Amino acid sequence: MAEIKIGIIMNGVTGRMGTNQHFKRSMVAIIEQGGVDLGDGDVLMPDPILVGRNADKLKNLAETHNIERWTTDLESALDDPYNQIYFDSQTTTRRAEGIKRAIEKGKHIYCEKPTATTMEESLELARKAKEAGVKNGVVQDKLFLPGLMKLKRVIDSGFFGDILSVRMEFGYWVFEGDWQEGQRPSWNYRKEDGGGIIVDMFPHWRYVLDGLFGDVRSMTCHGETHIKERVDEKGKPYKATADDAAYATLVLDGGIVVQANSSWAVRVNRDDLLTIQVDGTEGSAVAGLRDCKVQHRVTTPKPVWNPDIENPFDFEDQWEDVPNNQLFDNGFKVQWEQFLKHVHRGDEFPWDLLEGAKGTQLSDLALQSWDERRWVDVPELKL
Ligand SMILES: NC(=O)c1ccc[n+]([C@@H]2O[C@H](COP(=O)([O-])OP(=O)(O)OC[C@H]3O[C@@H](n4cnc5c(N)ncnc54)[C@H](O)[C@@H]3O)[C@@H](O)[C@H]2O)c1
Fold first, then answer.
1. Does ligand 1 come within 6 angstroms of the Cβ of 200?
2. Ligand 1 centre and the CA of 234: distance in Å?
3. Taking Cα atoms as reference points, which of 196, 188, 204 lies closest to residue 289?
4. Is 17 in the pocket of ligand 1 (CB under 6 A)?
5. According to the model, what pLDDT value does residue 1 have?
6. How far, in Å, is the centroid of ligand 1 from the Cα of 114?
7. pLDDT score recorded for residue 162
8. Cis peptide before 323 (omega within 30 of 0)
9. Cβ of 88 below 6 Å from ligand 1
10. What is the CATH number of domain 3-142+331-352?
11. What is the average pLDDT score of the chain?
12. Contact 286, 237 (CB under 8 A)
């Protein structure tokens, strides 16, 4: 059995996503499980080098997880041919610059979404990667959520008949930061720093909708900044300049109508932080992060509108759970493993920088629709 090491530059690893999902739950977990089994007796072993500005934070993070390599000198990490992959989970505004530099140095690219703050810049990254012939991938973690994987199974079974509509309800209350600390970074609420729920969530909605139901063809979106002032990590009040809620309607290929509510100013009264209800001619489903329940036309109750009597139905109780039937690993880790195999052996990996650019296209168009108060078409994106 051969162990094949693969050097990975991890930039932005001290951040929320970088530390928790990409470093601890993906990289460290893969190393601790003994690498990525290639199925032919060989094993791919990631060898990360943690990159950032704060030496103490990097050293501490590396030492806690028995990782030897860290540096505050990104250029030297990029100059070292041992490092084949450049990974970026910095704040969104910094990503394009980092990726361009890494492409120039011939590194394969893997990064968080959104890949850049505008569609033009996202497309430019995809073009540059293609021209340089480097492999590239973008995090599309929601596709690997157990609830959405179960929903995909239901779709693939033909259960729905014709899918008519999709209702996506996403959000939770993000504390303002005054009497309780905010649970998201303050830059998320400043437009000038790349914040806003549209820029943050619409890249997810794009690959979720394209991947599960069909390509998005047109949309209308209305955004709001419901909470006007928040308090940052240092306890300093600041003006929220970015949207913290977005109310969108989208039409997909084949005419499926999607309503997508996204909000950081909503209190949860549903099964999960994200729920997706799908209604079809033959049946319906509601998926959350881990679970998915279904109701077939033959088990559909027949309510009659009558507010004069107590509601005789327990509607919630009339759904059936879709069983696990498989083991679900952390979605970020699963996608990392697939990307590593893609880089090393050329295994299929459909979620590249062009797919990432489609996400930014949708958020750009949502902002345009809001600004111009009208429906917009979503043209096919090509390199
Ligand atoms: N896939 C998902 O579900 C998901 C969820 C949340 C965030 N994200 C994306 O991940 C990225 C990071 O988000 P986060 O919530 O971890 O943010 P964060 O603020 O916690 O982390 C940002 C990282 O960028 C670094 N950074 C910031 N400014 C820098 C500078 N001037 N120079 C060098 N480094 C700098 C920080 O040190 C930190 O490591 C964002 O692009 C965000 O859109 C993705």
1. yes
2. 17
3. 204
4. yes
5. 81
6. 11
7. 98
8. no
9. no
10. 3.40.50.720
11. 97
12. no
**What number does the ligand 1 atom closest to the CA of 92 have?**
41
18 C-alpha vs ligand 1 centroid, how far in Å?
7
Whether the CB of 98 sits within 6 Å of ligand 1: no
| DSSP bridge partners of 286 | 277, 293
Express each pLDDT in 129-186 by its tens digit.
999 999 999 999 999 999 999 999 999 999 999 999 999 999 999 999 999 999 999 9
How many Cα neighbours within 13 Å face the side chain of 200? 24
Cβ(360)–Cβ(112) under 8 Å? Answer: no
Please provide residue 93's backbone torsions phi and psi, each rounded to the nearest 5 degrees: -65, -20
Domain boundaries, the chain: 3-142+331-352, 143-327+361-376
The CB of 93 under 6 Å from ligand 1? The reply is: no
User: 129 C-alpha vs ligand 1 centroid, how far in Å?
Assistant: 22
Q: What is the DSSP letter of 25?
A: I
Classify domain 143-327+361-376 by CATH number: 3.30.360.10
Check the CA dihedral 25-28-29-35 and report its sign: positive
Q: Write down the pLDDT at residue 370.
A: 98
State how far the Cα of 51 lies from the Cα of 73, in Å rounded to an integer.
7
Phi and psi at 20, nearest 5°, equal -75, -55
Handedness of CA 249, 382, 163, 279 (dihedral sign): negative
Give the mean model confidence (pLDDT) for residues 259-279: 98
Q: What token pair was written down for 307?
A: 């507010």
**Cα 185 to averaged position of ligand 1 atoms, centre (Å):** 9
91 close to 187: Cβ distance less than 8 angstroms = yes
- CA–CA gap between residue 93 and residue 200 (Å, rounded): 12
- Cα–Cα dist 147/293, whole Å: 9
- Cβ count within 10 A of residue 373: 9
Instruction: Tell me the average pLDDT across 213-222.
Output: 98
Gap from CA of 92 to ligand 1 centroid (Å)? 6
Whether residue 292 contacts residue 147, with contact meaning beta carbons closer than 8 Å, is answered with yes
